[in-house]
C-alpha cells in the first residue's frame, strides 16, 4: 500500500458574496479531486486544538498525524531544523520576516503593508539578513537567512515568555497594538525599530523601489519556540515517509520526524511553483522504497493572505489538474493499492486574510475500497453535510494509514 497526502495549504474559505455566496473550493474546476470524492470518504477534521493558535505549524503537524498538544514547541524551531541550525536546549528560535511597513516617521505609527515584502527573492533577502546580522548579531543572538521573506533569529540562553503577533495576521493594520510585549518585548521591539533605520535605504531596497516593488524595509519577529522533539514517523506509523514542500516550516517538520525531505527545483510556495516537479518527485519516492509522501503546496494560503480571490481559485485548479491528476494516473499504472488524502491544513478566508481554526474538509480515497459515496463534489458544504467528523488529525491519520 502506498499513501499520498496532497495538502493545499489554506484552501478552505468562507462563502464570498462575489461568488454568489460560494467558496473558492465550490467554484473551482477540480474534476480529479471530485472523482476521488465520488468514490471515497468525505468529511471534516479539526486540525487546530482550541488552546493553540491556528498556524500552519500546528495544523500541518496535525495533518501529518502528530498531536500538536503533545509535539508542538513553537514555529521557528521547526524552520530552524530545515535551515540546518543546531539549536541547544537553552536556545529559543524566533521567526524573522522581512516585511514592508508604511513610511510614517514614528515606527509604532506604521502600517503592515506587506508581510512578505513583495515575496522578495531569496538572493535579495540573504543580502539584507546578512546586513542585519553584521549590525546586530553578537554572542547573545544570531540571524540566519532562509527562503524568500522567511528567516530566523536564535537567542542563546533565553526563555520563552514574549508575546508576538504574526505579520500575516495584521495585513493593512497599524502595528502599534501588535509590537512585541512581555519578557523580551522591549529588546525585540528595539531590534525591529533599528532594522527599519538600517534597511530602508539599503541598495537592495532602493533597487526594488525603482523597479516598482515593495521594499523589505523592516524585520518582524514572531513565532518563538524551543527545540522540538518529534517521534520518528517510521517509528510512529511503521512507514518510510517523504516530505515535499517549498517552505522551511514543513521541511523542518519532516526533518524532525526523520523523514526524507525532497528538494524540488522551482518550488516557490506561490502559484508559480513547479507543481509537476513536486508530483513527479512524489512518484519517484514511492517507486524507490518510500511508502508515504506528504506533498505540501503553499499557494492557496499565500493568496488567502493577500486577499487574491482569482489566484486562490487558480491555485486550487492547478493542484487538481496537475498534481492530483498525475499522482492518480501514476499510482494506477504502478498496479499497487494506494490511498490518497486531499485536504488543506486550515482555512485562510479571503475576508480575514489570515488563518482560522475551523474544521477543514478532507477527501480520503482508497483504491482497495473504492465505491460510490453518493457525494459528487468536494468542498466545505458537502463535507459538513456528510456528517462525518474527526476530532483531530491524529485520529484521521490512524484511519488513513491503516491498510
Secondary structure layout plus pairing:
Blueprint: E1 2-8, H1 24-27, H2 31-38, E2 41-45, H3 56-63, H4 68-71, H5 75-82, E3 92-101, E4 112-114, H6 122-136, E5 141-147, E6 150-155, E7 162-163, E8 181-182, H7 185-199, H8 203-210, E9 218-225, H9 233-237, E10 241-244, H10 248-256, E11 260-262, H11 275-287, E12 292-297, H12 299-306, H13 309-334, E13 338-343, E14 360-366, H14 380-385, E15 389-390, H15 393-400
Helix pairs in contact: 3-15, 5-10, 6-7, 11-13, 12-13
Summarize the structure.
Helix 10 (248-256) links the parallel strand 10 and strand 11. The chain has an 8-stranded mixed β-sheet with strand order 11-10-12-1-13-14-2-15, sandwiched between helices. Strands 3, 4, 5, 6 and 9 form a 5-stranded antiparallel β-sheet that branches.
Span from first to last CA? 7 Å
CATH superfamily of the largest domain: Alkaline Phosphatase, subunit A
Task: Enumerate the spans where pLDDT stays under 50 for 5 or more consecutive residues.
Answer: none
Let me know the average pLDDT: 96
Q: Compute the gyration radius: what is it?
A: 21 Å
Content-based structural category = alpha/beta
Largest sheet: 8 strands, mixed
> N-to-C SSE series?
EHHEHHHEEHEEEEHHEHEHEHEHHEEHEH
User: What's the architecture of the largest domain in CATH terms?
Assistant: 3-Layer(aba) Sandwich
Helix content: 25-40%
What is the domain tally? 2
CATH class of the largest domain: Alpha Beta
Q: Provide the CATH topology of the largest domain.
A: Alkaline Phosphatase, subunit A
| Sequence of strands across the biggest β-sheet | 11-10-12-1-13-14-2-15
How many strand units?
A: 15
Query: Tell me, what's the shape?
Result: globular
Tally of helical segments: 15
Strand fraction band?
A: 15-25%
Amino acid at each position: 500500500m502506498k499513501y499520498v497526502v496532497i495538502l493545499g495549504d489554506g484552501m478552505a474559505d468562507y462563502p464570498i458574496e462575489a461568488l454568489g455566496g460560494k467558496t473558492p473550493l465550490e467554484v473551482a474546476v477540480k474534476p480529479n479531486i471530485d472523482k476521488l470524492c465520488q468514490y471515497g470518504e468525505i468529511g471534516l477534521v479539526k486540525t487546530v486544538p482550541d488552546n493553540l493558535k491556528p498556524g500552519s505549524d500546528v495544523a500541518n503537524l496535525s495533518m501529518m498525524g502528530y498531536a500538536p498538544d503533545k509535539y508542538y514547541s513553537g514555529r521557528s524551531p521547526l524552520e530552524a531544523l530545515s535551515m540546518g541550525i543546531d539549536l541547544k536546549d537553552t536556545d529559543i528560535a524566533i521567526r524573522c520576516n522581512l516585511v514592508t511597513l508604511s513610511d510614517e516617521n514614528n515606527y509604532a505609527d506604521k502600517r503592515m503593508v506587506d508581510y512578505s515584502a513583495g515575496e522578495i527573492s531569496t538572493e535579495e533577502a540573504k543580502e539584507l539578513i546578512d546586513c542585519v546580522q553584521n549590525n546586530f548579531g553578537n554572542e547573545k543572538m544570531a540571524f540566519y537567512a532562509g527562503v524568500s521573506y522567511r528567516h530566523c533569529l536564535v537567542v542563546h540562553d533565553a526563555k520563552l515568555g514574549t508575546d508576538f503577533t504574526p505579520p500575516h495576521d495584521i495585513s493593512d493594520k497599524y502595528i502599534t497594538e501588535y509590537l512585541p510585549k512581555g519578557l523580551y518585548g522591549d529588546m525585540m521591539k528595539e531590534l525591529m525599530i533599528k532594522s527599519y533605520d538600517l534597511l530602508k535605504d539599503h541598495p537592495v531596497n532602493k533597487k526594488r523601489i525603482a523597479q516598482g516593488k515593495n521594499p523589505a524595509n523592516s524585520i518582524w519577529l514572531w513565532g518563538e519556540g524551543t527545540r522540538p522533539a518529534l517521534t520518528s514517523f517510521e517509528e510512529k506509523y511503521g512507514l518510510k515517509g517523504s516530505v515535499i514542500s517549498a517552505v522551511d516550516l514543513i521541511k523542518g517538520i519532516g526533518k524532525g520526524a526523520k523523514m526524507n525531505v525532497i528538494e524540488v527545483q522551482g518550488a516557490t510556495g506561490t502559484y508559480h511553483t513547479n507543481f509537476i516537479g513536486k508530483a513527479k518527485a512524489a512518484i519517484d519516492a514511492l517507486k524507490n522504497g518510500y511508502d508515504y509522501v506528504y506533498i505540501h503546496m503553499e499557494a492557496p494560503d499565500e493568496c488567502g493572505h493577500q486577499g487574491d480571490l482569482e489566484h486562490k481559485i487558480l491555485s486550487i485548479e492547478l493542484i487538481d489538474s496537475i498534481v492530483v491528476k498525475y499522482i492518480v494516473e501514476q499510482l494506477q499504472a504502478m498496479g499497487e493499492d494506494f490511498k490518497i488524502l486531499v485536504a488543506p491544513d486550515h482555512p485562510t478566508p479571503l475576508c480575514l486574510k489570515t488563518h482560522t481554526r475551523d474544521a477543514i474538509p478532507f477527501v480520503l480515497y482508497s483504491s482497495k475500497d473504492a465505491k460510490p459515496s453518493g457525494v459528487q463534489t468536494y468542498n466545505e458544504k458537502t463535507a459538513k453535510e456528510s456528517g462525518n467528523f474527526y476530532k483531530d488529525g491524529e485520529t484521521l491519520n490512524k484511519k488513513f494509514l491503516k491498510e
